[in-house]
């Protein structure tokens, strides 16, 4: 008799450097992060609802008992609606995030609850509907260093890109950069709230800051290297240049290799380039 296959886990850790972990989530292929110091730890993004957040908090507690702080890479629900389980704790974000969260949390909840219901996943829809968007109590303008004991992490806003308030989180002692959705692996970048021209330049700058050994952790998908970041930066530049040359509307109507992310994604990007 053969054993039934083990169900695939909903989420799993991989330790990509000493005390630096990535938690991959099957839902939306989200990647969250954990950086462990000697006095405290930092959790990078909290998942898309209160249940995912509680599961993440429990998973962090299996790795460390140190006090934690949370940082949001940006205000999209899948990155920040799981925070309740971590409270009370410091919550970091870019200074524009609180206003964005106030303006969009309820619409995000409605849009994605409907999406999950339409997909036949009422449990996810209910969990999202019951999740509170927790605002940060510490904000970053450009650059903040957070001392975890034995190591410092850097929270930085490099300009507009995937949103107008993206933060990256760098762990200099092991050359790891958590990029949020400024870089995506396994799916095209998402342009709904983006600033494509700024984003193309920002992504090129991000690649320039790295070296052959830098690991970049995207907001979705697996950790990638500098070659991947360079490629994504070039794709963003291609998109922006063709949209400029042809006009955004004709470009979106076109098909072919000048569409690095596919026509539907380019249409959304083109809307943001008008
Ligand atoms: Zn996003």
TrEMBL record:
Domain of life: Bacteria
SUPFAM superfamilies: Metallo-hydrolase/oxidoreductase
GO terms assigned for molecular function: hydrolase activity
Keywords: Hydrolase
Protein name: Zn-dependent hydrolase, glyoxylase
Domain Metallo-beta-lactamase: 29-220
Lineage of source species: Bacteria, Bacillati, Actinomycetota, Actinomycetes, Pseudonocardiales
Entry-linked InterPro entries: Metallo-B-lactamas (IPR001279), NDM-1-like (IPR050855), RibonucZ/Hydroxyglut_hydro (IPR036866)
KW Hydrolase (keyword) present: yes
